[in-house]
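Quick question: what would this complex look like in 3D?
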Amino acid sequence: MLVSEINTLTEEISSLVEKYGAGRQSLLPILQEIQIRYGHISDVAQQEIARLLDIHPVEVYGVTTFYSFLNTTKRAKYNIRLCKTISCDLTNKDGIARALERELGIKFGEISSDEKYSLAYVSCLGMCDQGPAMLINNQVYSKLTPRKVVEILDQIKGR
Amino acid sequence: MSDNAYKDRIPVSQQALVIENNEPEKIGGTINIEINGTPYKVPFGMTILESCKMHNIHIPTLCFHEDLCIAGVCRICLVEVEGMRTLQASCAYPITQSIKIHTSSEKVRKARRHILDLMISDHYGECYSCNRNNNCELQKLAKEYGVDFYRYGHVQEPFYEVDKSSYSVVRDMNKCILCRRCVRTCIDLQEVGALDAVNRGYDTKITTFLDKPLAEVICINCGQCINRCPTGALRANDPSDEIWEAIDNPQKHVVIQTAPSPRAAIGEEFGLPAGTSLTNELNTALKMIGFDKVFDTNFTADLTIMEEGTELLLRLKSALVDKDPNVKLPQFTSCSPGWVKYIEHFYPEYLDHLSTAKSPQQMFGAVIKTFYAQEENIDPANIVSVALMPCSAKKFECNRPEMDSSGFKDVDYGLTTRELAQMIKEAGIYLPELSKSKFDEPFGEASGAGLIFGATGGVMEAALRTAYELVTGRPVPFENLEVLPCRGMEGVRQASVHLENVKPEWSFLEGVDLNFMIAHGTANAEKVMEALRRGELNDIHFIEVMACPGGCIGGGGQPIPTSLEIRKKRAEAIYKEDEGLPIRKSHENPHVQYIYEKFLTDGPCGHLSHKLLHTGYVKRGSYIA
């Protein structure tokens, strides 16, 4: 990272620490804001947060890796998360998974080479009555069919 | 609908436990409980585990360690509390009501067995190739609970690569059972924070920041995590194969220096109670193993006192007489390599406060390959210098690139107490029954001041015995030379000695109160450093810090297990041995006088001692690249 980038990051984290307080209880909200702004929480950001909250970097790393929606590495532009829990599974999750893999040309857990799409399973999205469900960034798509998946992806690709 | 009607609709199993409170709810009172049908009285707020221990009822534990905070993660200490739906972790259940507890009902036994089976299903490792064989808490529990097959399977292939990057600590996460004792040790006890649990659920593992090799993150190599690991997941980097090879090579002259702490603890590896001193038996054993010479590190501990003490007096002189604003006081001791690395990482701006004197181990290394080689007419290239230490950080220290002032690697191998005990067993020797023998010349004798380096406060006490006498010409004003304010197990201690009627050459110290502080465990060191940063310690002159709780006797290379009780006993053993020694002050050691006469002719902190016995430090900082 460039020094100027690190400085902006530090400033940003400092203002977040000011906003939420300098205790360890502020860790999660700070992580969430950094995640929203940068799409991931870099190792520099993790160490800066640790320093400003007076905790150890490895504790920040432990929390970041605990939550699926906090990332330590750069993510794709569109993060596609398919619900893998039982009610979605019963409503043809596997068919949706195959359609996604075929359309995007990547497997689950992978990122496309142009860093545009990533594919991952998640635990319950809370859409059990409308399964199968998936999440693209913050948008929920429910009652999916393979055909619907193709349409959604076409829409995104057209953007 | 009334409250009660609603309550009736909750299934019985989900209803909250209500026990009629017939006891006064206050801390300090007692409470009547029933364990396995027998009534007992226990203090209000005491945990079930402690209460059972108090009444000699055994409850197995794994993640529980008396030095650490409660975690309640392993669930092996489950007990049944009558009226509660689920089993309760006894280590994390404070008793506040009169409850009835069952510690070995069918439900409890079965649950514990299943928990063990689950742990073992994830635990790769064959016991006979594990360095904790026979001293493993998981193995012991498996035996206790009669594990005779792998109910949930067993890992056949290692899942993680063994991290051997560090000179000191080897991490084999395949054997980890996620009890988080190392995490609590590293974060709470030592305030270093090298390890934590990352990921979630089945993927959870204990690792470093960004999963980096241990050598690349901030680790002070203190090895306290090793001492508290219940399995073989953490161990010290064992050089005994290389040492055997050197011993078996007739061309090599293998010398060993033994630190004061291992001799007070090695008996534990042979089944003796803690606090049994085996100094002279150990000398015999080392000779039997095949070491050519056995030296006493206490000799260079005496030398350290001369160098470090002189450095302190010089600093005081420039502060009080020359009024030099750049002189750094308080001066910190530099004997503990864990502490040195701690300050290099976390407080690099205070490195100038650290005494430049090397640790006794490195001083001896430099002296052996120069003075000793010269006296005995041995080519230093053929000398293999081994250091028996209670410490895993000493392994890192002897591998520091700057530690080659003799022209060679000053100390070739750092060996821990545990590893030496293993070598002794391998040689077919039963240590406690050996005859006694003395240390070898030319460093045959050492003072009791050097000996007490092993316990927290020891360096300070030794320094005071010498410095006070040097300045005033009288022995330090404590009965039997026991500087009691230095002793004890309190985390941070502070005291002062008043200097009066000093010798004319030290007249600037007339009437001065020499203020000193002692801290052990780097969490306590952090408190001291923060106080220093706030400017609260400006009147302190000398601070002793040891990285490990209890000092070297609680070091990361000492026999496992460890507890406050054990550390106290080891310290007692050291102090007792000091009491019986003819020489108890560093400057009275004839060998120290001899080496200043013959070799280091320009005296303490002179030119040659600066070259051989002093060192510099690296500003490491706490950023992990």
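Answer marked as accepted. Chain A has a mean pLDDT of 90.
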